[in-house]
Amino acid sequence: MSEIRNVPFFNYPRVFLDEEQQLTEIFHDVGSRGAFILQKDLQEFENDLAGYVGTKHAVGVANATDGLELAWMAVGLRPGDEVILCSHTMLATAASVVTAGGRPVPVELGEDNLIDPQAVEAAINPRTVGIMPTQLNGRTCNMDRIMGIAQKHGLFVVEDAAQALGSRFKGKMAGTFGKAAAISFFPAKVLGCLGDGGGVVTNDDAIFDRVYQLHDHGRDINGEVRSWGRNSRLDNLQAAILKYRLQSYSQVIERRREIAAMYQSLLGDLEELKLPPAPNANPDHFDVYQNYELEADRRDELKEYLRQNGIGTLIQWGGKAVHQFERLGFTCRLPKVERFFERCLMLPMNMFLYNTDVEYVCGKIRSFYRK
Q1: Domain boundaries along the sequence of the chain
Q2: Contacts (Cβ under 8 Å, ≥6 apart) of 286
Q3: What is the rounded CA–CA span in Å between residue 139 and residue 289?
Q4: Is the fold of 16-246 the same as that of 249-370?
Q5: Residue 347 β-bridge partners
Q6: Which region holds residue 299: left if phi is over 0, alpha if psi is between -120 and 50, else beta?
Q7: What is the pLDDT of residue 371?
Q8: 2 pLDDT exceeds 90?
């Protein structure tokens, strides 16, 4: 009997322990300056983030959910306005529309498990004002199709790019297609801090000005109160950590793509699985593999078998799509999304994996289907 190896889905202590010395130095530097709120570290990170993504502006906010809410509030949603989004997304995506005053309209996923452009077009009616594509699991949607539909019907596009920093479609970064986008810096994200954190990126001066006021009690960049707002500022300490980590971000992405290539090589021949696209499968897409989400026959049995063998997996969002939260008022049926959530499973995908861990995971999956 082979030895059981411990491969957690995500090893949270290592977010700190692997860089304990560098992070402790950042804590000491920020703390000794008393630089806790809206200090130079935040401004420098915002500048670096905008430069990395390729936008004119970036605003650090408390979390990506706030970021989406502020973006839609800046667009100016009114009661009854509808925003189309894929039901294969986190509930926060839809909640941001509600908080901003609109109504979310969940639609089907396509063959790539992202929002289906045909379903978007079919859902448009006189109340529709926007589309919110989720750039999910580190992959950017076919934004040619989405932007074409938006331009045809005069709709706003705000991107949920929470999981997609560095992802590209036809060479263009996630977060740079629409009016604005939100990015998450949750600890388990590809670029993560040591708590909640988020950012809004935009090329639109008016959207930037409005988001900035909304995130800091209505004050503009000069500190003058211009409107009602709230507090959704990214902590300066977290910004300092993110600024440090952004410097090595390209190496992080490269490693995640190496792991994805290993999964493809070791599991790609199993007919019982539908894997996400391999790193070089389509030249239009550059994926950063925030998650490695596949579809599996006998999914629940496989998950339990892997657990018994020390391997952590996750069914995203508790196994429910947005439209399946019936207490929130949704009544539609989306068979493709529902079928996906009966089969989806996320394997470990993070910087703490050794090649031997990936080989162990794949070996156990093969033994499950071939025993």
Answers
A1: 16-246, 249-370
A2: 166, 167, 168, 169, 171
A3: 7
A4: no
A5: 292
A6: alpha
A7: 73
A8: no
Which residues, including other chains, have CB under 8 Å from residue 295's CB and lie 6 or more apart? 273, 274, 340, 343, 344, 345
Of 263, 276, 242, 274, the C-alpha closest to 167 is 276
Domain 16-246 = CATH 3.40.640.10 = yes
Residue by residue, what is the 3-state secondary structure of the chain?
CCCCCCECCCCCHHHHHCCHHHHHHHHHHHHHHCCCCCCHHHHHHHHHHHHHHCCCEEEEECCHHHHHHHHHHHHCCCCCCEEEEECCCCHHHHHHHHHCCCEEEEECECCCCCECHHHHHHHCCCCEEEEECECHHHCCCCHHHHHHHHHHHCCEEEEECCCCCCCEECCEECCCCCCEEEEECCCCCCCCCCCCCEEEEECCHHHHHHHHHHHECCECCCCCECCCCCECECCHHHHHHHHHHHCCHHHHHHHHHHHHHHHHHHHCCCCCEECCCCCCCCCCEECCCCCEEEEECCHHHHHHHHHHCCECCECHHHHCCHHHCHHHCCCCCCHHHHHHHHHEEEECCCCCCCHHHHHHHHHHHHHHHHC
Location of structure tokens 């998950």: 303
Helix axes 64-75, 91-99, angle to 10 degrees: 40
Looking at domain 249-370, which CATH architecture does it have? Alpha-Beta Complex (3.90)
pTM, 2 dp: 0.95
Q: Give the CB-side neighbour count of residue 175, counting CA atoms within 13 A.
A: 32
Read off the pLDDT of each residue in 89-93 and give the average, rounded to a whole number.
Answer: 97
Q: What is the pLDDT of residues 332-348, one digit of tens each?
A: 999 999 999 999 999 99
Tokens of 260: 């994805």
Q: Span 89-102, mean pLDDT?
A: 97
